[in-house]
Known about the structure:
heterodimer, A: globular, B: mainly beta, globular
Amino acid sequence: DVKVTQSSRYLVKRTGEKVFLECVQDMDHENMFWYRQDPGLGLRLIYFSYDVKMKEKGDIPEGYSVSREKKERFSLILESASTNQTSMYLCASRRDRWDSSATNEKLFFGSGTQLSVL
Amino acid sequence: AQSVTQPDIHITVSEGASLELRCNYSYGATPYLFWYVQSPGQGLQLLLKYFSGDTLVQGIKGFEAEFKRSQSSFNLRKPSVHWSDAAEYFCATTSGTYKYIFGTGTRLKVLA
């Protein structure tokens, strides 16, 4: 099965630091995503990449940027971390092949990175 | 706009009891609907999905869900809950693009 690996399970950073969250998938998927998960708010899309060097803003991109230099790796960057960015961050990937039967359609998720900004 | 609503934030059931988690969707055309489960400390895992055809879909871990267009619902069910089912459950939808919309989640607690 597809494996999506997030480099850190827990991360503690200070306000104003530049933070890198790394995600690697091993199944040659074209699409990769960064979500933020907060209690009572579900999952909110931060950024999406549909292929190498291609990216699109999601619903809450402010304060974040992303990098996808290689197909398997998608990085989320917090340019200057703030306390309101304390959250669980989830990376996901999917194959970019949609059809109406879509028998294989699903997102594959990493285990998440719990980021605390102090 | 496309959306899904999970009206129950928390649900508690006894082990062996039946379970139903509610999901309502809002979308004009035929929606693509999913249920994902997140066990403690884990990412989300797909339980089942509905795209077309039979409105009762079977998933992993003994779960099933029924698509009811007249009620705009896609409720998740399990006849007998196990302690290992304690987790957070997310309903999701997509229109056939990369854009997935997730509900706010329902946290399930199972009493021994």
